[in-house]
């Protein structure tokens, strides 16, 4: 019976991922409908904690965007990238990584991709190299960022004081090393641009050749008056979340009792409460101080993307967790011994699920509780955490498609067999290295 149920699960995820947008969420609900009324499976609780976290964090990021704060951050990143074009294969990915680590979203990379492509092409460096690893870096930044939904979900799942600090302490250096090795893996990838047949053919067009020979600095975009203030408020919010995670004694506590979404069984505030209150308070402060209207926030592209994220997590995680709960004994019996003896093998399962789900937060919420049920220690789960970034394997994620479209030289592409595209080598290398380093750091620090 489990194989019929598993077939339904995979079928719904595959169909939903092809539909894009909220497709993953609504097909997840179709799968849940089949589980409930055909297989008579008992549903688990819906993933309200992750949904609330996504709503709070993305609203705050959208406020930062509407107030001009993201434009200010992008302008700083652009200056860094343009400052040393010869080393763009290394500078661009790390600039992207730290920017996304700070902002908590990979979508900010869209603003930098055309800059990376332009600077590398005019320096006659194959754009595929910095573009591919920069996209991977934008994803890896989410596993360790205190402002990302995936990291917040991981903190809630681990559920012990100081979990956020442990995640940052292991995942950030592990992912940085992963990005570095990823840069090395693409440093000589493909033919040099001037020897690339596609580029040579394009250069036969006089207008194209002229555009490739013109060295024009990016235009300085005027910033909104409150842009820097918004970034400062956002920074304070990040610091408060980190402090709350590092020093739980500073956070209000109450009488022990039944566990709720807002308060843990020991009376301490849950991370859902802490993150939601701090981020949305920061959002209010940005709107009031920078005079950014609520209407501007709701029109921001980050805010409009929130609905898709929430619906996707709602449907696919509820379906997946119901499947996992109903077949818990079978799954533990099949995987328990292997995972106990070789904890790293669980990373393969997480990686595969991440390929199908196209969502770090959804993959985290679905797979990490299974890791806990299988008896993996927190150090191992944190080391495996970067595996949720495998959404690059099937080239349908927006950041990959954007990088391909922004590369006017044609060097960044999807291969004949679909999966042999520009992002798989740096992605697999960076994530593999990050996981390996994570296990090493976990054994030393936790």
Automatic annotation (TrEMBL):
Pfam families assigned to the protein according to its UniProt record, in alphabetical order: DcuA_DcuB
Entry membrane topology: Multi-pass membrane protein
Family designation: Belongs to the DcuA/DcuB transporter (TC 2.A.13.1) family.
Gene Ontology terms, MF aspect: C4-dicarboxylate transmembrane transporter activity
Location within or outside the cell: Cell inner membrane
Membrane-crossing residue ranges in chain numbering: 6-38, 50-70, 90-113, 167-187, 229-247, 267-289, 301-321, 341-358, 370-388, 425-445
Keywords noted in UniProt: Cell inner membrane, Cell membrane, Membrane, Transmembrane, Transmembrane helix, Transport
Name of protein: C4-dicarboxylate ABC transporter
PANTHER family cross-referenced by the UniProt entry: ANAEROBIC C4-DICARBOXYLATE TRANSPORTER DCUB
Keyword Repeat: no
Entry's Gene Ontology cellular component terms: plasma membrane
Major localisation: membrane
């Amino acid at each position: 019976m489990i194989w019929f149920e598993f077939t339904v699960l995979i079928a719904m995820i595959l169909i939903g991922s092809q539909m894009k947008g909220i497709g993953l969420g609504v097909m997840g609900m179709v799968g849940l409908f089949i589980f409930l009324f055909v297989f008579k499976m008992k549903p688990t609780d819906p993933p309200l904690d992750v949904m609330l976290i996504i709503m709070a964090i993305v609203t705050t990021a959208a406020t930062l965007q509407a107030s001009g704060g993201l434009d200010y951050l992008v302008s700083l990143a652009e200056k860094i990238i343009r400052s040393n074009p010869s080393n763009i294969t290394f500078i661009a990915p790390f600039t992207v990584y730290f920017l996304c680590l700070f902002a908590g979203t990979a979508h900010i990379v869209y603003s930098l991709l055309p800059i990376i492509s332009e600077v590398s092409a005019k320096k006659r460096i194959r754009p595929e190299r910095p573009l591919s690893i920069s996209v991977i870096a934008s994803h890896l930044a989410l596993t360790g960022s205190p402002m990302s939904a995936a990291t917040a979900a991981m903190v809630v799942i681990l559920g012990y004081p100081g979990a956020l600090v442990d995640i940052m302490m292991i995942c950030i250096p592990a992912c940085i090393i992963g990005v570095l090795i990823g840069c090395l893996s693409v440093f000589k990838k493909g033919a040099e641009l001037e020897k690339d047949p596609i580029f040579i053919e394009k250069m036969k067009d006089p207008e194209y050749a002229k555009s490739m020979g013109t060295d024009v600095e990016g235009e300085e975009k005027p910033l909104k008056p409150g842009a820097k203030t918004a970034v400062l408020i956002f920074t304070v919010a990040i610091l408060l979340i980190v402090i709350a995670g590092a020093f739980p004694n500073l956070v209000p506590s109450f009488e022990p009792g039944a566990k709720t979404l807002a308060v843990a069984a020991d009376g301490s505030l849950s991370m859902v409460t802490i993150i939601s209150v701090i981020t949305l308070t920061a959002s209010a402060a940005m709107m009031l101080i920078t005079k950014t209207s609520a209407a501007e926030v709701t029109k921001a592209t980050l805010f409009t993307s929130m609905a898709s994220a929430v619906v996707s997590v709602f449907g696919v995680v509820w379906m997946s967790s119901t499947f996992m709960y109903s077949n818990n004994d079978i799954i533990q019996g099949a995987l328990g011994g292997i995972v106990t003896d070789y904890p790293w093998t669980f990373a393969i399962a997480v990686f595969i699920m991440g390929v199908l789900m196209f969502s770090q937060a959804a993959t985290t919420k679905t797979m990490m509780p299974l890791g806990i049920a299988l008896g993996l220690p927190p150090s191992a789960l944190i080391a495996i955490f970067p595996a949720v970034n495998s959404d690059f394997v099937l080239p349908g994620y927006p950041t990959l498609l954007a990088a391909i479209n922004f590369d006017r030289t044609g060097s960044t592409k999807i291969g004949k067999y679909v999966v042999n595209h520009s992002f798989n080598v740096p992605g697999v290398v960076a994530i593999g290295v990050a996981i390996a380093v994570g296990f090493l750091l976990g054994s030393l620090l936790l």
